[in-house]
């Protein structure tokens, strides 16, 4: 989860800083269009340095971490560089105070950030009159423009943070959904075995106490213990059988919903209408295991679940584009158990990376289950 969060922060930060850098780059470009390469170079150096600092601010904000003890000094750095360069850079530089307002919204406590925003917007009015001449309407428009642009810029950073938090929440909910079924089964087995083992313990202790007093009664108690154990075995079998008997259609729908809960898309392609029950059970388990692995062990953005007939056999293909690397795809007990289940009914399972970031699982099974081979 921590690695996923760090990757999301890096990706979102890169996107936000790239957009911001493109907008800030309009100022040096404006100087070039005015035929002033010297001021264009100065603007490029000043804004490039501020963009490096701004990138760190954005990364911390998206990650939800503190801006550090020197955030006030960082804000003053933006203010000094931007306003200090106005006398030398002239009228084209007059739009850059929006950077100061944005930095105030991201670095300072909310109430102080709003105050800075209003002060910067108000100061833009006289600065425009000085640089562009006594045209009140134009000055008012530029003042309002700085206000709106700063709010939008800070809003983009906040939105990126909300996107990261929402994705993490989706993954957490998906993992909870995966664990819920296993916890329910564990609870059923706990209740069943707890009562059964207590009964077996009592009857066994009673048999031990009677063995030297009444061997016939002790034997009867032992027979009762064996009967209880047999009933418990049958009941456990019923619980497990209920767990094993999966509805393939329901599993396909649940898998797609679970994968999409993480924010990925899932493409279902079904070319089969009727499948043998036992074959369908195996395929249901395969779909469930594959969906679980995608949620827990990948950063998939798109998944494909395809069920079709190939050369008279049922073929299930599950592919995703979010493999994290070979170390994250070490065979586990789930995949090993699934392989045994597939081979038991005369099928085959292949799973592994097929390209950069692509992982797929392919299962081939007979369309009609062979009971003799399945119970050998």
From TrEMBL:
<keyword id="KW-0472">Membrane</keyword>
<feature type="transmembrane region" description="Helical">
    <location>
        <begin position="103"/>
        <end position="123"/>
    </location>
</feature>
<keyword id="KW-1133">Transmembrane helix</keyword>
<feature type="transmembrane region" description="Helical">
    <location>
        <begin position="12"/>
        <end position="33"/>
    </location>
</feature>
<dbReference type="InterPro" id="IPR050482">
    <property type="entry name" value="Sensor_HK_TwoCompSys"/>
</dbReference>
<dbReference type="InterPro" id="IPR011712">
    <property type="entry name" value="Sig_transdc_His_kin_sub3_dim/P"/>
</dbReference>
<feature type="transmembrane region" description="Helical">
    <location>
        <begin position="75"/>
        <end position="96"/>
    </location>
</feature>
<dbReference type="InterPro" id="IPR036890">
    <property type="entry name" value="HATPase_C_sf"/>
</dbReference>
<dbReference type="GO" id="GO:0046983">
    <property type="term" value="F:protein dimerization activity"/>
</dbReference>
<feature type="transmembrane region" description="Helical">
    <location>
        <begin position="40"/>
        <end position="63"/>
    </location>
</feature>
<keyword id="KW-0902">Two-component regulatory system</keyword>
<dbReference type="Pfam" id="PF07730">
    <property type="entry name" value="HisKA_3"/>
</dbReference>
<feature type="transmembrane region" description="Helical">
    <location>
        <begin position="143"/>
        <end position="160"/>
    </location>
</feature>
<keyword id="KW-0418">Kinase</keyword>
<keyword id="KW-0812">Transmembrane</keyword>
<keyword id="KW-0808">Transferase</keyword>
<protein>
    <submittedName>
        <fullName>Two-component system sensor histidine kinase DesK</fullName>
        <ecNumber>2.7.13.3</ecNumber>
    </submittedName>
</protein>
<dbReference type="GO" id="GO:0016020">
    <property type="term" value="C:membrane"/>
</dbReference>
<dbReference type="GO" id="GO:0000155">
    <property type="term" value="F:phosphorelay sensor kinase activity"/>
</dbReference>
<feature type="domain" description="Signal transduction histidine kinase subgroup 3 dimerisation and phosphoacceptor">
    <location>
        <begin position="182"/>
        <end position="244"/>
    </location>
</feature>
